[in-house]
Amino acid sequence: MSIQVLKNEEEFNQLVQENKDFYLLKHSLTCPVSTFVKTQFEKFNNKTEIPCYMLHVQEARPLSNKIAEGYGIRHESPQALLFHGKEVVWHDSHGAVTEEALEESTQKLS
């Protein structure tokens, strides 16, 4: 399944309403660490049934800030978030976001 890139708050709000569980990656288009994390996220996406989405912080800064404020999670980039029942149940950033860490985070859903 391909990873859809979110561009605005309307797309994000619809996602929250329509999905009980999903992952979101805040990805920087200019950061080498973010490129590494994006690769890890893509590998994880190929193995999981949980929908995975991404936003590009340079192109969707208002959305990125809104998520940080709305969920009380300091913005970092790259940053992966796991949503469950309209709440963030796991998040991590930078080099800590690996394929293995993403796999382990699914335990937060049970």
UniProtKB/TrEMBL annotation:
Superkingdom of origin: Bacteria
InterPro entries the record matches: BrxC (IPR022551), Thioredoxin-like_sf (IPR036249)
Signal peptide residue numbers: none
SUPFAM superfamilies in the record: Thioredoxin-like (SSF52833)
Pfam families for the chain: BrxC
Protein name per Swiss-Prot or TrEMBL: Bacillithiol system protein YtxJ
Organism this protein belongs to: Thalassobacillus devorans
Lineage: Bacteria, Bacillati, Bacillota, Bacilli, Bacillales
The encoding gene: ytxJ
